[in-house]
Amino acid sequence: MATTACPNILMIMADQLSALATSPYGNPYVLTPHLQELADRGVVFQNSYCNFPLCVPSRASMVSGRLCVNIESYDNGCELLATTPTFMHHLRLAGYHTVLSGKMHFIGPDQLHGFEKRLTTDIFPANYNLYRPWEVQGNPPRPVRPTMAEHLKHAGPVAWSDQLEYDEEVHYRALEQLRAYSRRQGASADQPWFFCVSYTHPHDPPFITAEYWDRYENVEIPPPETPPPGHVPHESDTWVITYCGVDAVGLTAEEIQRARRGYFAMTSYFDDKVGALVGELGRLGLLDNTIVIVTSDHGDMVGEHGMWFKRSAREWSARVPLIVSSPGRYPSGRRIRENVSLVDLYPSLLSMAGVEIPLELPLELDGHDFTPLLRGELVDWPNEVFVENYGAGTIKPVRALVKDRYKYVEVYDLPPQLYDLDRDPGEWHNLADDPRYAEVAAALRARTLDGWDGAALEEKIIESQRVRQFVKRALDVGHNHPWDFQPLFDATKVYSRRHRANGPDAVKTVVAGFEQPREK
């Protein structure tokens, strides 16, 4: 059983937040003072990536520490098997109280995957509905209903929205849980906790309250970077553009500016939530023994390269913030240049908690423990990350490798791409056919294709989509039994009745300023 020496861990997640849309990552136009403050007190991984630029696969990969190709998570309609170990299973077995408030976008009957407790339901359904089979998408792929891009034309302030309703509940329950932790007594007071608070902002559509929209009234919001003369988009970029319907809606320069403003304003909303959670930790006296981690499942193109939303291996879509703050454990104000990704969280979180993987567990993780980097130690770091994409908006398997300063992108059956991210951070100049980079391209291609067969994978993905479509059709007949998580509350153990509760949420009862004795 863990002891008080084990740190608490608060992991705060955004949905669709690009690292490049925050001030700690050099963006001077987005107002994120709380993220900046956390970065100043913590460690910033400058080159952190998701492993799949789409919600369900990215999160499944993150919690399992394995690339999506190895857990067969191909799109937003893929189930993570209940037998797949997650880092929550390890932490829970080691004595941690594992809790989730908010989104994790698990598909299928298991809506916990090692979490002992969920405080809210998810914002999206847990069924097989949120994907489109490759065989019906067309080439180029196009949506079958009003396009996501149509929302971009109407970006602006709103009084309220489903996303705001969800995140306000997530935040309320999160604060409630932190306060419960601060008031525990007895044996439960010493139990460490892993608490994930996961918001849906700044996910599209770009609608936010006037409070946040107005923050950008006199703030410069630059347009997307202008392509160099003669630039021809890669075919896989065109797929993302057509699938989201961007080419069909014809955005004006003013609409692009408003859509970017909406995204930045939603990012400021998330930033305020981060500040409130960290501030509450401090107010409750929990901050000194809590490691705070901020990240996102993937980014957003926000108009760069003519693309919006995610589904691309390009930097705005694949780069995510990763900030770790625990000044008593790790140096403050450090910036780490090594390439890391979300699969590295699995072994790293276990290392932070002092938890070892059981020897009898046949587990091959794709991630690596980055805690030595946090401590400033010199280690033999592989300095590479893989970004996969098999979801809607692509119609061929995609695998990208970021190694050192280069990014190599293999789209099965299409020309390869190679970018020097140091010299060309905008990814405009494809060096794959440049003779001067032939040796680099060959080495990166060999590493990218090591154990990865695009042709065989294409067949396997299409087969998976056919099977899931069949099961979906069957489940839609007759009475439906949703898999969505149902949060239940026991009213006999709240407010002045809390003293009857046992376990990690048991607290003292205070009435009129006087602590009441526990009922015997």
Structure description:
It contains 14 helices and 16 strands. Residues 509-520 have low confidence and may be disordered. An eight-stranded mixed beta sheet has the order 4-3-6-1-8-9-2-10, with helices on both faces. Strands 11-12-13-14 form a four-stranded antiparallel beta sheet, covered by helices on one side. Strands 5-7 form a two-stranded parallel sheet. It has helices spanning 33-41, 55-64, 68-71, 87-93, 162-182, 210-213, 235-243, 246-249, 253-283, 315-318, 345-353, 371-374, 438-449, 454-475, and strands at 8-14, 43-49, 97-102, 117-118, 156-157, 193-198, 207-208, 290-296, 322-325, 334-341, 384-389, 398-403, 406-411, 417-420, 510-511, 514-515. With 520 residues, the protein is of the alpha/beta class. It has two domains: 8-358 and 379-388, Alkaline Phosphatase, subunit A (3-Layer(aba) Sandwich); 489-520, no CATH class.
CATH level 4 superfamily of the largest domain: Alkaline Phosphatase, subunit A
Per the principal axes of the C-alpha atoms, what is the gross shape? globular
Assembly level:
single chain
- Main sheet specs: 8 strands, mixed
Q: Give, in spatial order, the strands making up the sheet with the most strands.
A: 4-3-6-1-8-9-2-10
